[in-house]
């Protein structure tokens, strides 16, 4: 994905900007830009339908969370193109904490604060979102799509528990790299956030950060000290399996979309070469 240069005209300061890619997948691309004095983060969301999102919802969510002070300030946003420009954070991230037990404690405290948020956003269904993954995957890789849908059917009880169980605001991608704990708590990368089951969100955090048993024990103990909905270690095992399944489907979809886009680029290049040959 090419850098969205049109956003530069909307920045509060101007100059010659250098762009540095810092993240790329089919769901979004991210750049750090700097002009020697100022730095910003530029993000562009894409393939919303394939990833079960409503166009513009993520942009609106970024702004709502920035207003609550837990996410970076939004400098510019365009819902139609999926482009947002945010402040560049320079604090310490939880991933920089050397002691894994302290990291687990900080992650649990951040998770608690997320679960205590009240955000006015459109609710979404985990089952419907994962079915969107499966549908998009089946269009590109029919065998894999059907297999993914079949695998999901064996977790029908957990999908139902997600829909009808306790509801809190969840991040769903709480990597230690996404949590700035100094000088104040700020969290980035909210594109999968929304109201959901707290145990699913905790399981997501455990899987994303690859926590070991003693770290999981510390996380759950810290979380349960102030949580409205207690997390049971035994019950968490099934949620972790569901998270692992959804992550696998997501990565398969990402791989299939990348292959399809690469094929389109190759066909376009071949057509251009053919046109040049004919003209010559």
From TrEMBL:
Record-annotated Aminoglycoside phosphotransferase domain positions: 20-238
Transmembrane spans: none
Coiled-coil regions listed: none
SUPFAM superfamilies given in the database record: Protein kinase-like (PK-like)
Domain of life from the UniProt record: Bacteria
Signal peptide region: none
Protein name listed in UniProt: Aminoglycoside phosphotransferase domain-containing protein
Organism: Aliidiomarina haloalkalitolerans
């Amino acid at each position: 994905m090419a850098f969205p240069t049109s956003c530069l005209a909307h920045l509060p300061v101007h100059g010659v900007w250098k762009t540095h890619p810092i993240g790329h997948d089919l769901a979004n691309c991210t750049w750090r830009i700097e002009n020697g004095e100022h730095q910003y983060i530029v993000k562009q969301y894409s393939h919303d339908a394939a990833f079960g999102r409503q166009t513009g919802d993520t942009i609106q969510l970024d702004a709502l969370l920035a207003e609550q002070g837990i996410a970076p300030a939004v400098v510019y946003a365009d819902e139609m193109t999926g482009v947002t420009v945010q402040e560049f954070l320079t604090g310490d991230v939880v991933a920089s904490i050397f002691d894994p037990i302290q990291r687990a404690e900080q992650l649990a405290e951040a998770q608690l604060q997320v679960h205590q948020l009240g955000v006015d956003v459109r609710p979404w269904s985990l089952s419907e979102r994962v079915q969107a993954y499966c549908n998009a995957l089946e269009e590109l890789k029919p065998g894999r799509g059907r297999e993914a849908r079949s695998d999901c059917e064996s977790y029908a009880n957990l999908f139902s528990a997600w829909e009808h169980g306790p509801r809190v605001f969840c991040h769903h991608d709480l990597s230690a790299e996404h949590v700035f704990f100094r000088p104040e708590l700020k969290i980035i990368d909210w594109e999968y956030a929304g109201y959901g089951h707290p145990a699913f969100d905790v399981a997501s955090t455990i899987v994303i950060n690859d926590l070991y048993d003693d770290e999981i024990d510390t996380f759950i103990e810290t979380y349960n000290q102030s949580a409205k909905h207690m997390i049971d270690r035994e019950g968490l095992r099934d949620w972790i399996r569901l998270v692992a399944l959804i992550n696998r489907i997501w990565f398969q979809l990402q791989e299939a979309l990348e292959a399809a886009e690469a094929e389109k680029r190759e066909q376009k290049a071949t057509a251009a070469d053919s046109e040049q040959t004919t003209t010559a």
